[in-house]
């Protein structure tokens, strides 16, 4: 069982590195918005402050590397590289599903490597909603989270991925209840996320009503899990079924605009954010943090640690320059500011 899961994780990393599995028709939607250039910003570029707080720790910019790896040796190397890059960039880091560690605790080192290399930043562990509803021993879960040094636990909702995955488990009955119970028993916050098909307004409101404060909309427009799983499926009919869902999902911007209507909710916007300008737009449209996954796997495959650092530096510089050219000194004035960003008709 553990071997199958780690092999699957390896397949996912290889496919992201070697093949184009992005949406071809659905866009995340950031091109619908444009910043309003301010030729009289009345501030200096050096005054722009991109810092904020997340889970009680300081961030140099409001960005998170979304859950990717863990469980297997490739995941350990990747988590180490991501942790070093994230710690020096002063951003948050989420690690991949801890399901393998629930089966075999010896693989915990592939996750713990993240905190060892990122002592200063918010670190988020990850688990699938299906594993929760199957029932997890709370003591074991708690000891894994302690070993990892996690500041929060992200729970991923991935019904379509489980349904298409050859070894998936599409059992989503009682998932809401399981999340609610976990929220009430865990000593660290819970973040509920999708994996790239997006959270709809109705789902977001249900989660908020349950007391979930943090969500990651993980919308469509970036990584398409239907395309990834189709690459792994051998059986022709099941491959055809996965093909039917290549363009399925709620675009990131559409999910973000629905989420910001829920006052008090804290939003991470991810899904197809693969450049600095999309990152800046996500924040201006109301996200507390923006995030990305596949871009960092590609950077790592192509350029290793240097690729990761350079992309994060580019994101920070782009945000700073956007804030300067829209006359916003800090994120308080930049976030959710309809004076600086407009919808193109
Ligand atoms: C190789 C890979 C592995 C992933 N593993 C997980 C995971 O274990 N748990 C999870 O919640 N999301 C996982 N994701 C989903 C991402 O966290 C993210 O929600 C999704 O890829 C959309 O972001 P993107 O368009 O920037 O890739 C994974 C993504 C990639 C590319």
Written description of the protein model:
- This protein is α/β, with parallel strands linked by helices and 345 residues long.
- It has a single domain (2-343), classed as TIM Barrel, CATH 3.20.20.
- The protein has helices spanning 2-18, 73-89, 99-103, 109-117, 129-134, 138-148, 159-164, 175-185, 201-209, 225-232, 236-243, 252-260, 276-284, 294-325, 331-334, and strands spanning 33-35, 52-54, 57-59, 63-65, 92-97, 123-128, 152-156, 190-193, 214-216, 266-270, 289-292, 341-343.
- The chain has an eight-stranded parallel β-barrel with strand order 4-5-6-7-8-9-10-11, surrounded by seven helices. It has a two-stranded antiparallel ribbon with strand order 1-12.
- The longest helix has 32 residues, at 294-325.
- The protein is globular and about 60 Å long.
- The mean pLDDT is 96.
- Flavin mononucleotide binds at residues 12-13, 16, 66-68, 96-97, 126, 154, 156, 193, 195-196, 218, 222-223, 270-273, 292-295, 297.
List keywords for this structure.
8-stranded parallel β-barrel, about 350 residues, alpha/beta, 15 helices, two-stranded antiparallel sheet, TIM Barrel, binds flavin mononucleotide
* Low-confidence blocks of residues: none
Main β sheet profile: 8 strands, parallel, barrel
Task: Output the helix-strand order.
Answer: HEEEEHEHHEHHEHHEHEHHHEHEHHE
Structural class: alpha/beta
Determine Rg (CA atoms, Å): 19 Å
Mean pLDDT: 96
The DSSP helix count reads 15
Q: What percent of residues adopt helix (DSSP H or I)?
A: 40-55%
| CATH topology-level fold name | TIM Barrel
Strand content: 5-15%
**Full CATH superfamily name:** Aldolase class I
Task: Label the CATH architecture.
Answer: Alpha-Beta Barrel
Please write the CATH class name.
Alpha Beta
